[in-house]
Amino acid sequence: MFILLSLAACASNQQSQVNDGSVELGLAQTDDSSETITPVSQEPAQNQMGGIGQGMGRSGGMMARHHATVPETYVSVVNPGSDEESLARGAEIYAAHCAVCHGDGGMGDGVAAKGFDPAPAAVAHTSQMLGDDYLFWRISDGGAAEPFSSAMPAWKNVLAEDARWDVINYVRALGAGTVMPGRGMGGMRYDPDGELQMRTMMLATAVSQNLITQAEADTFNKVHSAMDQLTPDGQMRGNMNIRENKMLNQLLASGEISQAEMEEFNRIHDLLVSAELMQ
To answer: Residue 184: pLDDT above 90?
Structure first.
């Protein structure tokens, strides 16, 4: 399932703080009492706190980061594939190196999350809409360069290539609800139903502000819902713009949406971003 929205409303609920240096990013280990994470049923994971997750949309630069161009070095990388063994390895690596910032459920709300600006990404959410090459690049090179400017280390200096793919497979499984989060660092689970509720609220706000009509909101919701249900066509590649355009063209080719609906979706999308209702 692909979900493209990060709502600006989430940003108002969180206040970014400057890193005080009290937590060393990337080398934290869960304690021995943390639960081993294993693959479970295909039912979506539910957010036990009833919201979409506090890790989304907390920084105004998120759109620029997710639309960054993948460097030539990484455009040809190929994910070797996900299986139970890969997910188990990815769970172990994630618990040891990632959960302290990104949270057990991958929603950017680990114990160290409040110490960084920009805040850690809600990787369970964003991994569903970014290509393998993009994710492998970001994990490998870290966040030092613009437009990222984050505290995320360059994991290519720590993790072998296969280990990085295991982590990517695992965080994608977190977002798909096919694995259950551990209980080492705290944080919420990703909740697709909560995402739909927030999208509904966002569109209602846009209508109330006379940015769009109800008919336009219905068109946007129709196209977005179709994208949410879309099965990937081949390997996932590219940044969010590339992924979004590919999905829209898939829906157009299959007859699920019309050219007019695709164009209207893009126009409304840009309006919502400009109005800072969506980031």
So the answer is: no
197 and 134 housed in the same domain: no
* Of 241 and 234, the one with more pLDDT: 241
Q: Are residues 25 and 85 in the same domain?
A: yes
Give a yes or no: residue 269 inside a domain.
yes
Cα four-point dihedral sign 202, 208, 210, 215? positive
Report yes or no: 180 and 40 within 8 Å, Cβ to Cβ: yes
What pLDDT band is residue 143 in, cutting at 50, 70 and 90?
confident
Tokens 């949270």, residue located: 103
- Are both 152 and 262 inside the same structural domain? no
Q: Smallest Cα–Cα separation from 184: which of 93, 51, 120, 117? A: 93
Q: Residue 182: inside a domain, yes or no?
A: no
pTM over 0.70: no
Q: List the Cα angle 87/90/95 in 5-degree steps.
A: 125
Cβ atoms of 54 and 108 within 8 Å: the answer is: yes
